[in-house]
Write a structure and sequence with these properties.
Layout: H1 2-20, H2 29-49, H3 57-87, H4 91-119, H5 127-142, H6 150-171, H7 176-197
Helix pairs in contact: 2-3, 2-7, 3-4, 4-5, 5-6, 6-7
Length: 205
């Protein structure tokens, strides 16, 4: 029984090593582009119906939390289907690796909102920029298993995040556009990179 357990552990280790050296093709351009559409719709709806985002920060943030959850669901559904199609028996290992790379930044974004909302609500104006910086770190962490040009999307989010922080520092207000437009552009850029790279010559490994 000990030998069997060791053999199974060795197989899992080998599969993980193979997955680590394989380009991940689970992120689909269609779902990524659709999340940009979700960001645009959310920004437009808040612009039309939320007269004072700064005066109602929880409503503002709840709208974007719903948009983020919907976007994550769309990406997850397509990731499952594409991973089964492109990675076959390695699908589970590849998905696990992708989650390991991006999940820490996602958790950090949630915790930032919780901590600022509870202990420093006067600083909630910083969240749009901070979220964009956090997303950039998640994208950079994923570069080793995605097309290298995905780093351009990470760079966009990084620069946009600090620009949004700079703009927000002038009057400490929340705006659907400083949240929405960077994500519309960033997700569109990411979708275009994934589409044209096709997971072939432009990937690590």
């Amino acid at each position: 029984m000990h030998d069997l357990d060791k053999a199974l552990a060795d197989i899992i280790t080998i599969r993980s090593q193979i997955a680590a050296g394989t380009a991940f093709r689970g992120y689909g351009p269609a779902a990524i582009a659709a999340t940009g559409g979700v960001a645009l719709i959310t920004a437009v709806l808040q612009y039309l119906w939320l007269d004072d985002p700064t005066g109602h920060p929880l409503t503002f943030l709840f709208g974007w939390a719903v948009a983020a959850a919907l976007s994550a669901l769309m990406i997850w559904i397509e990731m499952q289907a594409r991973s089964r199609r492109h990675h076959s028996g390695l699908a589970d290992a590849m998905i696990h690796q992708a989650l390991e790379q991006f999940l820490p930044s996602g958790i950090a974004g949630v915790l930032l909102a919780v901590v600022l909302g509870k202990f420093a609500p006067e600083a909630l104006w910083m969240l749009p920029g901070l979220w964009q910086v956090v997303v950039s770190l998640g994208v950079f962490a994923s570069v080793r298993s995605l097309p290298r040009t995905v780093a351009f999307a990470g760079g966009w989010y990084f620069v946009a995040g600090f620009v949004v922080l700079l703009l927000g520092s002038q009057n400490h207000t929340l705006s659907p556009w400083t949240m929405g437009l960077p994500f519309v552009i960033g997700q569109s850029l990411m979708a275009a990179i994934l589409y044209f790279a096709s997971g072939e010559s432009d990937v690590e490994g």
